[in-house]
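Quick one: co-fold with 2-acetamido-2-deoxy-beta-D-glucopyranose.
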Amino acid sequence: MKTFLLSIIVVLSAITVSARLAPPKERELLRLPGTNRSACELIHQEDLPEECTCREPDAYGLVIECLKPFDSLYLNDTIGMKINLDPCNPDGSSLSLDVTEAEHNVDITIVGVKAGEQQNFPIPGLSVIVPTIGHLGVDVAVLIYGNPDRLSVKVGLNACMAAGPQHQYCASGIPGLSRVLPWYVLKGTYAFGDFCNSTNATSSLPALPLSDDIDAVAKFQ
Ligand SMILES: *[C@@H]1O[C@H](CO)[C@@H](O)[C@H](O)[C@H]1NC(C)=O
Ligand SMILES: *[C@@H]1O[C@H](CO)[C@@H](O)[C@H](O)[C@H]1NC(C)=O
Ligand SMILES: *[C@@H]1O[C@H](CO)[C@@H](O)[C@H](O)[C@H]1NC(C)=O
Ligand SMILES: *[C@@H]1O[C@H](CO)[C@@H](O)[C@H](O)[C@H]1NC(C)=O
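Sure, here it is.
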């Protein structure tokens, strides 16, 4: 009987330990009304191009993966894109990208584009030829602006050529080509404030009990 009880205790404590070791699903547990929308819901995943999917590998952001076949006289190629959006980064919202293209064996990684930046990253070797105009280099176009409460993000592919020192001539201004490019994966202003604040709260401890505890500790010191 004693050994039986003992083994029950051992089993029970093993269960407790494994429950403690199991990865916590804290965000789900502590979701408050109105703060329960996932990162993919917040970027309106239903509006993503059909070649793209959104997933949430961790509690802090999202990953969008696309495999976009272009089948036109201008661009006949398949471009893969992986966007890692990190809206809640305490150093400022940021995103990273991985772009692949098979024909020219391109695989470029762009890390840590921070809020406040707008950049075009040329895809080496890839251009669009437009008769009487010339070659337009294909770029990964990235804009990220604002803060988690109001984060504007634009990520996609575009084709542009320099037209004088200050000007660019881009695909949207060229009839025919404008039906192919630009192609945007994300283009909008998103509200991550609640999401980030609840992620923040749960990545340490719940906000209110913690501050009470701190007060209590302070009083006793
Ligand atoms: C979020 O919570 C509301 C009610 O608080 C509920 O109606 C809604 O279905 C929830 N959404 C998700 C994705 O859990
Ligand atoms: C794109 O390339 C494929 C194979 O290389 C070819 O069969 C197809 O006709 C091309 N499409 C266009 C619009 O040029
Ligand atoms: C998350 O918490 C950190 C540290 O407390 C803070 O600096 C940051 O602004 C918070 N992020 C958001 C989105 O509230
Ligand atoms: C999230 O917390 C930050 C810092 O405390 C605050 O400025 C922001 O307004 C909050 N956002 C929302 C949607 O509650």
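If it helps, Residues 36-220 form one domain.
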